[in-house]
Design a protein that fits this description.
It contains 10 helices and 6 strands. The chain has about 300 residues and is α/β, with parallel strands linked by helices. Helix 8 links the parallel strand 5 and strand 6. It is globular, with a radius of gyration of 20 Å.
């Protein structure tokens, strides 16, 4: 049972440091060891995302109130630089934790996307050239009836709420096109999608080449009767992805961008997704759901 902030940090640090020991032979650092180790810095970043401290000034200021946990706080510029240099390691931690969750045993997933705007819409015309170079575009978010400038984050999630894989794509890319790219690494799966993924030829090709079933409900103008049990299954699946999307948006602020560059954005996304995966892992480890509440999204204070 985790009921305080210190225990949360301890669990997170132990998991991160254990994995870092596995990765150590591949990630030797040059020069003297910093007072704040990589494991400590990554843990601070992950816990900070769980608490919603997604501005570095807020994060470091908040950690300053808990210096007994991490006594050596880097400067803001050094924290940013080191976290960006470690973004591949952070994503590797996520991948290792996903493997430990044994998601390969789960043969049913759901696919969906959520918006990642990079600048407010009214400022998009004057956005940094870096965003344009890395594919940021205007795109419609039908579910929210708005247009954004930036990207969409496409997620592949198990029915137990584990984010297996993801892909960041320009906001104007069709969900179906990016979804096929995301699924091309997988076989023998049943994947549920909304109507944005509806395409009989694509579904037939995935089934033929990858033994992968991409299931969607028909559009209303197709006049196809869908059995009640099938609709209930889709409704239950939608609840799962809506819950994960809600967690990412409300607790991890994934739809807010404080980065000034594409690689800064990628670093933040890796950190948020890794933090979410670790929360799910710790819940399973403890056999509880108190670390990351399904709708309340509470993180012990």
């Amino acid at each position: 049972m985790i009921d305080n902030f210190e225990d949360c940090c301890l669990y997170m640090y132990v998991i991160v440091d254990d994995i870092m020991q596995q990765l150590a032979p591949r990630s030797k650092r040059r020069g003297p060891r910093p007072a704040c180790s990589d494991s400590e810095l990554i843990t601070m970043a992950l816990v900070g995302e769980c608490r919603g401290w997604d501005l570095e000034t807020d994060l470091l200021s908040s950690w300053g109130e808990h210096q007994g946990l991490f006594p050596h706080l880097p400067s803001q510029s050094r924290f940013n630089r080191r976290r960006r240099n470690l973004m591949g390691v952070i994503n590797r931690i996520r991948q290792i934790v996903v493997q430990q969750l044994e998601v390969s045993q789960e043969k049913h997933c759901v696919i969906d996307s959520l918006p990642v705007p990079v600048v407010p819409f009214h400022l998009a015309r004057n956005a940094s050239r870096d965003w344009h170079v890395h594919g940021a575009t205007f795109g419609k978010v039908v579910s929210k009836q708005l247009t954004i400038f930036g990207y969409k984050l496409h997620l592949l999630v198990t029915l137990s709420g584990v984010i297996v894989d993801f892909e960041l794509a320009p906001a104007n890319e069709r969900d179906l096109v990016v979804g096929v790219e995301l699924l091309e690494r997988y076989t023998h799966l049943t994947v549920y999608g909304d109507k944005a993924y509806l395409s009989a030829p694509v579904a037939a090709e995935l089934r033929r080449t990858q033994q992968l079933r991409l299931l969607t409900l028909p559009r209303s103008n197709q006049h196809i009767d869908v059995p009640v049990p099938v609709r209930k299954t889709f409704n239950a699946v939608r609840q799962i992805i809506e819950t994960v999307n809600s967690q990412l948006a409300e607790q991890f602020h994934i739809e807010r961008n404080h980065a000034h560059t594409f690689w800064g954005l990628c670093t933040r996304l890796y950190t948020k997704l890794t933090a979410h995966t670790l929360c799910v892992f710790i819940n399973r480890l403890l056999g509880t759901a108190n670390f990351l509440h399904i709708k309340g999204l509470a993180f012990p204070a």
